[in-house]
Amino acid sequence: MFKLGLCSVTFREKPAEEIIEIARQQELEGIEWGADIHVKPDSPAEYAAGVAEKCRNAGLAIPSYGSYFDVLEHAPADFAAIVEKADLLGAGVIRVWGGWVRPEEVNPEQFEKITSTSREIAKMAAKNNIQVAFEFHDNTPTEGGDNVLKVIHGAGHPNLYTYYQLIRPNDYDWNLANLEKIYHKLAYVHVQANDGERNLPLADFRDMWKEILLRLKKKSYDGWLFFEFNKDNSVEQLAEDIELMRSLME
């Protein structure tokens, strides 16, 4: 059955201890820690280990580490500290970004950089039994199923995967087609709804999420659904979104 978790970036302004308490109170099972605020790659090892211990004490898993490593802009050497922090957290997946350029605007030189760096970091993470998964995001080279698979196949390393989330959430058929295309390379799911300008209540896309969960069930998916940003980035809206998802899971 699905496991429900929280992305710490939903509450960037809150300390790690408060996020752990929110997750516990909402009866979630895990946290994806963001590398921008809460567990930075250059943070002391003792700090990352301490966050992991606090999660264990609260009964929370740490399935993934939400890094901001950009395979277009960053060098593989920069990934070493990220692997170290993911290992200290006990995370089995590291989220990375494909770069900030639209897929149709990627030139051959950029594609070579994207795929070669992806290949190298996949090798680095594999040594620690950690998967590398792309952010499935609009206005990036990994926007949509066809584009993220082009990058994964171009890199040619088996340790590359992808997240899934709604992109252009009003496009019902396209989003469902994306799920079918990428499922064999699916790491985890980010649960949110953003129309490119603002975060929206999950209830506005109830039918979409109902169908997504139905398809995941049919595929025997037993992985994580991480609540990411919500309409107000508030605990109250988070609670509403969790209640909705739990009702759709029944």
Count of discrete domains? 1
Strand order of the largest sheet: 1-2-3-4-5-6-7-8
Strand coverage percent: 15-25%
Largest sheet: 8 strands, parallel, barrel
Compute the number of helices: 8
Computed over alpha carbons, the radius of gyration is: 17 Å
- The total strand number stands at 8
Determine and state the CATH class. Alpha Beta
Mean pLDDT: 97
Unreliable stretches covering 5 or more consecutive residues: none
Secondary structure layout:
Blueprint: E1 3-7, H1 16-25, E2 30-34, H2 45-57, E3 64-70, H3 80-89, E4 93-97, H4 108-126, E5 131-134, H5 145-155, E6 160-164, H6 172-182, E7 186-191, H7 206-218, E8 224-227, H8 235-249
Name the descriptors.
250 residues, 8 helices
Structure description:
The radius of gyration is 17 Å and the shape is globular. The model has no long low-confidence stretch (mean pLDDT 97). It has an eight-stranded parallel barrel, surrounded by five helices. The chain has a single domain, classed as Divalent-metal-dependent TIM barrel enzymes (TIM Barrel), CATH 3.20.20.150. With 250 residues, it is an alpha/beta fold. Helix 4 packs across helix 5 and helix 7 crosses helix 8.
